[in-house]
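Q: What residues go here?
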């Protein structure tokens, strides 16, 4: 009898041991992602409803982020100020910002941050529109010009004027949001407006036959109007692998879009709040960069030159408190 009880006790102990072993193994696999791979990193990314963010929306939709060990969550903001505040206060991990915004935040708020992806630059997606009687930037002297203060439109106008030895003091500024600037051209309230797509297309659709044309665009100053992916240096120090993961996600999603434009356009249109039919006109004025194309822009010195031009214009315009070393924020080698 004692022998039988001993055998039963041993069997129970072996079953318990086996169960503990299985539980331990399952816990380890769950920590590593279930297949022995490294743990997925959750990343909150601040964006705006702008088509330049398209590859990241595609990555979310198609699971490209998870393929590279990231659980990406894009958080959309309507206003620049709200997105900038969320980034500065660590409500998000990463932000897709205009290059000039990044430089200004570094100077005025002394944020320690790095830009790791050069996403896109505007060619004809940002433009100065003018009536038929205004055929050169010199003709802008004394004109009433509608544009959004502190935005890319102001930067583009400053650059155009500076090339001809002028400043904003040489024109009559009429501040209003970008979409209203376009409407003011359509209504005839002003002869010149600075705005961006899709508002450019709306103006030209209604006024091109009357001689309204593109006087100056982002293509005249490459890199001036551009977007980059940034995060605080502390986030990269805590997650050293995230730079390459984000770059890999961007590259693969961008290539997917290039290879599958119809499907990609549907995803991007949804994220940016426009119709897929509007996208081709906007995309024709943008240039996107993958890592290889970005590296060429960095090695040529073109990117740094554009950043220094942006800084110069903002210092002259009074929107920056101090000069910075732009090399400190560019991490795109």
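A:
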């Amino acid at each position: 009898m004692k022998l039988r009880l001993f055998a039963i006790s041993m069997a129970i102990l072996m079953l318990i041991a086996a169960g503990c072993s299985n539980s331990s193994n399952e816990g380890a696999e769950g920590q590593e992602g279930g297949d022995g791979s490294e743990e997925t990193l959750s990343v909150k990314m601040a964006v705006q409803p702008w088509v330049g963010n398209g590859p990241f929306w595609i990555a979310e939709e198609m699971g490209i982020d998870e393929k590279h060990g990231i659980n990406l969550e894009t958080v959309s903001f309507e206003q620049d100020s709200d997105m900038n505040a969320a980034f500065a206060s660590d409500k998000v991990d990463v932000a897709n910002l205009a290059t000039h915004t990044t430089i200004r935040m570094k100077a005025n708020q002394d944020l320690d941050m790095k830009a790791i992806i050069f996403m896109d630059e505007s060619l004809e997606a940002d433009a100065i529109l003018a009536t038929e009687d205004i055929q050169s930037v010199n003709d802008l002297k004394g004109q009433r010009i509608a544009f959004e203060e502190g935005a890319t439109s102001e930067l583009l106008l400053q650059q155009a004027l500076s090339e001809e030895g002028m400043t904003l003091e040489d024109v009559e500024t009429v501040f209003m949001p970008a979409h209203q600037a376009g409407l003011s051209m359509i209504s005839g309230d002003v002869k010149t407006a600075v705005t961006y797509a899709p508002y450019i297309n709306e103006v030209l659709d209604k006024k091109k036959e009357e001689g309204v044309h593109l006087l100056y665009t982002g293509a005249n100053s490459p890199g001036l109007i551009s977007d980059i992916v940034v995060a605080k240096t502390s986030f990269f120090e805590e997650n050293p692998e995230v730079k390459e993961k984000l770059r890999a996600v961007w590259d693969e999603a961008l290539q997917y879009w290039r290879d599958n434009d119809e499907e990609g356009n549907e995803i991007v249109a949804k994220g940016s709040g426009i119709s897929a039919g509007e996208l081709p006109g906007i995309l024709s004025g943008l240039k996107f960069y993958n890592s290889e194309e970005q590296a060429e822009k960095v090695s040529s010195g073109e990117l740094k030159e554009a950043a220094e031009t942006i800084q110069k214009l903002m210092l002259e315009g009074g929107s920056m408190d101090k000069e910075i070393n732009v090399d400190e924020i560019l991490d795109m080698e």
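A: Context that may help when evaluating the design: The longest strand covers residues 113-122. The first helix runs from residue 2 to 31.
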